Amino acid sequence: MFRLSGRILVSLLAAFVSHTSANTPFFTDEFNTSASSCSNSAPSSSNWYTNNVLNRVAHGSCPASPYWGVGTSSIDSAGGSAIYKGTVATGGEQEIRAAIKVDGNDSSSRFVLYLNASDDARYINGFSKVGTGYAVQFVIVSSPSTTDKKTLNPIVMRLPSSGYPETLSTGPSVDVGLDFNLRVVRTNVAGTWRLTFFANEKYVTMVSDSTFTAGKPGFGISNAPASYLTYFDRVEIATIEHGNPDLSAFPSAFSAVAAPNYVALQWPPATDTDGGSYYGPAGLSH
């Protein structure tokens, strides 16, 4: 079920809705050409503009069955980035998702997801960058006493055409395991451009900014441990859908759940339209 919920505090409740429909992203890179070949480089120059240092990672017997442990990493302190070469059908509205694996002893890696970025975009540090666009960095800020989880601190930055990277938002920190997913979305909802990001499909925060409305999505990594056990395992790019669920299926497919201080509206994926992730405004009157 997809669900919209909000606390009814005033006569009109304006809610921001987000859900991911069940369709497949239009582009997926698992950094391997096939289950029987390990000869490719990562990431492929046919799909990505690569900047500075990105290393191909392969662990275990290669080829192997099942095929596992192939990805992209960088132990370089200035890191590397890969910006998508293809076309995003929804233009400046775009989404990038990443599956990441982390070494249990890692306390230094920095992961970056880019949106609306120039081909050469790369965040280096708070005083240095290349290119333009948005960079959402997730930094490992602590190494817990147990080695089966990490704490990430997200930082949303704007990379201007000149000057230093500009911080738009920091935090809140999120706890993840050693195998987790990150997702960043750029949308234009009712004229307001937003960046929204998630960790393991849980909402983290949202930032409004309209500086860049062109460019491409991408990813990057720096300061990974020399073990190469921290890496991007998979990257997906999706388009944005503003359409509502299929209203012809209502009310039979639509249900409401009442509670003392909130209302939940929900519908099954089968009644939703295809096309990517859905981000749009909705209103409730009470």
Plain-language structure description:
The structure is a single chain. With 286 residues, the protein is mainly beta. The chain is 0% helix and 51% strand. The strands form six sheets. Strands 4, 7, 9, 12, 13, 14, 15 and 19 form an eight-stranded antiparallel β-sheet that branches. The two termini are 23 Å apart. The N terminus and C terminus are likely disordered.
Share of β-strand residues: over 45%
| Helicity range | under 10%
Give the tally of β-strands.
24
Integer-rounded radius of gyration: 20 Å
Distance between the termini: 23 Å
- Overall pLDDT confidence: 77
What structural class do the secondary elements suggest? Answer: mainly beta
Task: Using brief descriptors, characterize the structure shown.
mainly beta, 0% helix, 286 residues, globular, six-stranded antiparallel beta sheet
SSE arrangement:
Blueprint: E1 2-6, E2 12-20, E3 27-29, E4 48-52, E5 55-58, E6 70-73, E7 80-84, E8 94-101, E9 110-117, E10 122-125, E11 128-130, E12 133-142, E13 150-159, E14 166-170, E15 174-176, E16 179-189, E17 192-199, E18 202-208, E19 216-222, E20 231-238, E21 240-241, E22 255-258, E23 263-267, E24 277-285
Parallel strand pairs: 21-24
Antiparallel strand pairs: 1-23, 2-24, 3-20, 4-7, 5-6, 7-19, 8-16, 8-20, 9-12, 9-19, 10-11, 12-13, 13-14, 13-15, 16-17, 17-18, 22-23
